[in-house]
Amino acid sequence: MSSNATDLTTGFIASIVAIVLFGSNFVPLKKYETGDGMFLQWVLCAAIWLVALVVNLILHCPKFWPFAMVGGCIWATGNIAVVPIIKTIGLGLGILIWGSFNALTGWASSRFGWFGMDAEEVAKPVLNYIGAGLSVVSAFIFLFIKSEIPNNTYSVDTTPLISEHVINKTQDPDPDCSWVDKLSTAQSHLVGCSLAVISGILYGSTFVPIIYIKDHSKRNDSIYAGASQNDLDYVFAHFSGIFLTSTVYFLAYCVAMKNNPKLHPEAVLPVVVLPGVWTFLERYVVGERVCVSGFLSGVLWAIATCCWFIANRSLSAVVSFPIITAGPGFIATMWGVFMFKEIQGRKNYLLMMLAFCIILTGALCTAFSKI
Fold it and tell me: Which among 106, 176, 323, 352 has most CB atoms closer than 10 A?
């Protein structure tokens, strides 16, 4: 098998893995009460950093570029809104909306050379513009899809999974109630869609520092001269930016809450009441109540992002970016439709399928415009 064929095979396999994991990594958050999401996002980011540490050691600790951390800061800022988005408009619709704006932002920044990056030239510019335009159209269609989120969003059955173990309880009659839970139906849809748009724009900008370093590494007069062209070499710096920023946000949150944050231990890791490995397996793996956590969500996201970096190197970003940003929406929607029953009704189904077909067509147009 030729080197080019090997790169293509590696790139497409990595893309498929990234799509499945990106579309499923927030599923664990649906099973447990997550409060306002600030503590949960910090745990998720801690798991991300641990995966980066392992990858860094496997790669024999490549040179650390602090500027690559900026992309992690941008991503962590967008990630703060994930829990409110899931609680207001649902997992499937949330990922579809932020995925559309993620794709559009990432395409525009690389196509036109925003933020000091080298502009990407494409063989078929008309096809490229059509793909970007279809992404915009699909994003607006998603805004009209109505999601039905039950009051108890953290369980797919009627058995409450979180009845106790809430740390730092106050005299509030409903200590688990966050600001998201107090919104009306109309307000929830507006807030959820708005946050998904903002998160998508931030997510689409997260690779800008890494691409900037790689572009300027080819210039002898740049401070990044000689920097690696392997995207995985920037994983540790990128993920360190994520963890550092999420820690700062969580500390600020604790100060704002007067050191009385809403913490839900069972949304993080299972509490093993009795000692022994079998007790753990029997209660959390073999039993009906399988324990999932924010830590698992972070690990899945980190692995997916590493696969994305591999796809960028094997296929080039202009091919992998539209594919990987379009695919997770379909996976997440399947979770939302078949497991969580978030999207119901013939009208919503038709709008969803129309929007997905449009964004898939747009992603393919954008990808093939380079070939």
Answer: 106
